[in-house]
Specification:
Number of strands: 28
Radius of gyration: 27 Å
Oligomer: single chain
Helix content: 25-40%
CATH architecture of the domain at 406-643: 3-Layer(aba) Sandwich
CATH superfamily of the domain at 406-643: Glycoside hydrolase family 3 C-terminal domain
Number of helices: 22
Structural class: alpha/beta
Length: 793
């Protein structure tokens, strides 16, 4: 203990426990009183699983780590508890009791009474048994609706707080660069502005519930070569700055995120976990981030085992700590004994330990974990008898009616109608053939970070914990008078052709045929989509294309329905299927959402957050390509998508008219304002998604042909019109120039008002005047889109 630091407040109390003392003073006093071992103990976590009997948590045995001895660790303290609910199936109330008992033990065992910070996954809902499974992030992007995503995240956060969790490992802000990457389902889309705005809304919602949001993966993970998981990234500094970093910048500046997780990848030979310029220079010194940086699981150890930039565990710890990683997750490996020994012998400065410790303790103080009235037992269990755990079972509901209603709203907004020859919405078909591997599969709506697919698959026989109606169930409810006949045809990826003849027979005898295709989410090769489930091409998995082509050849009208984690090339179906309905793992209410679109109960309003390719081998490709990335006469590969970013059809029609521009010129520090009208000219209510793109025809460095800078959902009744007023700051024309600084250059621009990236409806040609102007992270980030009713003539 440092004798120069005053730690006592009044006799018998300490400064760090007094909420009336400034946070910095509380933290200073605590750091000054701690030994080196007590300091480093706050810098790592232990992976545990809560007890389904309400007893203390048990360390999780992971195949990449040795078992942890909690009895040996706890006397010096513990920084984090890793995934107490996302490791084994456990009733939420009993899990909360288990976590509370463990927290009581942790606080009582160390000298300072410091509990651990508990974190869990919450990518598409709290990844706990019995918690609501919301649509995956790719579906959030398809909604183009930050408000509904913000509400969802707040609900997720409330559920996490209800059981004693403090930190959520979401959102994923990686921008899709290659759809072959398995983790596409976890992303929000291929455009940085869409990713940034939707991701920021998620952060705002989660943080509003008191949960620490963790941005991941910082930075470049999605740009790995050939779409392979945990592979090197080849991006240059300009692509990194203009495509990959803006969503993180926005979520920190506008979302208030309190944590960041590093990426596994290396960029030009520098692993993210060892990148001081990224984790300290940019993140903290430039952007002003003052939260914690946590390691992606095993990332610190990977500096030795995978990247080869450290010779031993101590070297890995020192390298990561110096770069700016504060917390080692999921278990103690390098930040324990190897780090303390390296500090003791002078290889690692203790000041680096103190720097990370200060951030961690500040967060714990702000969470109230050191306050004298801290209580590890969540409010839902107050007054309960902890010695009667059986009576607690079912006391905490993580999938209540409000959650399910919200999950359905998001799923409905996320369904994208890709094509339609007029067959949809369906009238009242008498005989429906429901075909394909996802026709009657409950988990076809779930992503790889849902509890049933992430954890439940390792516990066969355990119920899902939530209701998962299949597409068959949903269609039976939607069309109660129809005769529905199901034939699987083939599996998701087994290549089995033996059932295709039967599927064709069933289709011939029906009035309408629906084929449900797509993915099975899993981890590390156990699925066709998900972490470690990368693919070589974007052909439908297994024999699904064979099944699809066979059904197209029949006379029965065919509707193709996708329940998938990534976009796939659909071959002849693009032109010959009567309709195509795309959903990206739409969650527990997803099949009802799809059925509602098929029947017309719901007018589809989803828009593609990623392009659907024309062929299986045209990757990597996104709409953000520069001119040379588009189709040309000098290459035999045509990357033009079958359905472009932002595309989506409706059951009504919208007319865009009367464009006016307040002024066609503005200085490089000014803005443009334009207005136009959108009218619903169809026969039913619907939602148009107005998208604003910027085209810069001449710039000092190569630019994408266009990029999204704003959007708005416009809900209109039949014959209703709204006047939209769009303000575009000149800052949105900025890009990283030749000198590495962000610049707004004078010159001509086009502001394209569009229904998709390939469907511009109105174009304003404007000019920036004056001299080039450099901007930084304080620049304006948004085009504002206001709406007002149009008074009938």
């Amino acid at each position: 203990m440092n004798a120069d630091v005053a730690v006592e407040n009044t006799p018998g109390t300490f400064l760090w426990n007094d909420p009336g003392v400034p946070v910095t003073k509380r933290v200073d006093a605590l750091i000054g009183a701690m030994t080196l071992q007590e300091k480093t103990a706050q810098l790592y976590g232990v992976w545990v699983g809560a007890s389904d009997q309400g007893g203390e948590v048990a360390p999780h045995q992971h195949d990449m780590e040795e078992i942890v001895d909690l009895d040996a660790l706890l006397p010096t303290g513990l920084g984090q508890l890793t995934r107490p609910f996302g490791t084994v199936p456990v009733d939420p109330a009993l899990g909360a009791l288990s976590l509370a008992r463990t927290q009581t033990r942790i606080a009582a065992t160390n000298r300072f009474g410091i509990p651990a910070l508990a974190h869990d996954e919450c990518l598409a809902g709290f990844a706990a048994w019995g918690a609501t499974a919301y649509p995956v992030p790719l579906s959030w992007g398809a909604t183009f609706d930050p408000d509904v995503v913000r509400r969802m995240a707040a609900a997720i956060g409330r559920d996490m707080r209800a059981v004693g969790v403090h930190q959520g490992l979401a959102p994923v802000l990686d921008v899709v660069r290659d759809a072959r990457w398995g983790r596409v389902e976890e992303t929000i889309g291929e455009d940085p502005y869409l990713v940034g705005t939707i991701g920021t809304a998620y952060v705002q919602g989660l943080e509003s519930a008191g949960i620490v949001a963790t941005l991941k993966h910082f930075a470049g993970y999605s740009a790995s070569r050939a779409g392979r998981n945990l592979a090197p990234s080849s991006v240059g500094p300009r692509e990194r700055a203009d495509v990959l970093l803006p969503p993180f910048e926005m979520a920190i500046r506008e979302g208030g995120a309190r944590s960041v997780m590093n990426a596994y990848t290396d960029t030009d030979g520098i692993p993210s976990a060892a990148d001081e310029d990224l984790l300290t220079g940019l993140l903290r010194d430039t952007w002003g981030f003052d939260g914690t940086v946590v390691a992606d699981y095993f990332a610190v150890a990977f500096l030795k085992t995978l990247h080869g930039v450290a010779a031993d565990w101590a070297g890995a710890a020192g390298t990561a700590l110096h770069a700016g990683i504060d917390v080692e997750l999921p278990n103690v490996k390098t930040y324990g004994t190897p780090l303390t020994e390296a500090v003791a012998d002078g290889r690692v400065p203790e000041a680096l330990v103190d720097r990370a410790l200060r951030r961690i303790l500040t967060q714990k103080v702000l969470l109230g974990l050191l306050d004298p009235d801290w209580n590890p037992l969540p409010a839902a269990l107050h007054g309960a008898d902890p010695d009667a755990p059986a009576a607690l079972r079912g006391r905490i509901d993580l999938d209540g009616p409000e959650n399910r209603a919200l999950a359905r709203t998001i799923a409905e907004e996320a369904v994208v109608l890709l094509s339609n020859d007029g067959t949809l919405p369906l009238a009242r078909p008498r005989r429906i053939a429901l075909l394909g591997p996802n026709a009657d599969e409950p988990v076809a709506v779930l992503g790889c970070y849902s509890f049933p697919q992430h954890i439940g698959v390792r516990h066969p026989g355990t119920p899902h914990g939530i209701e998962l109606p299949t597409l068959r169930d949903a269609l039976a409810a939607e069309f109660p008078d129809a005769e529905i006949t199901v034939a699987r045809g083939t599996g998701v990826d087994d290549g089995d052709l033996s059932g295709i003849h039967e599927a064709a027979r069933v289709a011939r005898e029906a009035d309408i045929a629906l084929v449900a295709l797509g993915d099975r989410a899993g981890l590390f090769g156990r699925g066709t989509s998900g972490e470690g489930c990368d693919v070589g091409t974007l052909a439908l998995p297994g024999a699904q294309q064979h099944l699809l082509d066979t059904l197209i050849d029949l006379e029965t009208p065919l509707i193709t329905v996708l329940l998938a984690g990534r976009p796939y090339a659909l071959g002849r179906a693009v032109r010959e299927s009567a309709a195509i309905v795309q959903s990206f793992f739409p969650g527990e209410e997803g099949t009802h959402a799809i059925a509602g679109v098929l029947s017309g109960r719901t007018n589809p309003s989803g828009r593609l957050p990623v392009s659907v390719p024309s062929g299986p081998g045209s990757q990597p490709s996104t709409y953000l390509g520069a001119r040379l990335a588009h189709a040309s006469d000098v290459s035999s590969i045509d990357p033009t998508p079958a359905f472009a970013f932002g595309h989506g059809l409706s059951y009504t029609r919208f007319d865009w008219t009367d464009l006016s521009v307040d002024a066609h010129e503005a200085p490089t520090d000014g803005e443009f304002t334009l207005s136009f009208s959108v009218r619903n000219t169809g026969g039913r209510s619907g939602t148009e998604v107005v998208q604003v793109y910027l085209h810069d025809p001449v710039a000092s460095v190569v630019q994408p042909v266009q990029r999204l800078i704003g959007y708005a959902r416009v809900e209109l009744a039949p014959d209703e019109a709204r006047r939209l007023r769009v303000t575009v700051p000149a800052d949105l024309a900025s890009f990283t120039g030749r000198d590495g600084r962000r610049v707004v250059e004078p010159g001509a621009l086009e502001v394209r008002l569009a229904a998709s990236s390939t469907d511009p409806r109105l174009t304003a040609r404007v000019t920036l005047t004056g001299t080039a102007r450099h901007v930084d992270h304080t620049r304006r980030l948004h085009a504002t889109v206001g709406q007002e009713p149009v008074t009938p003539a």
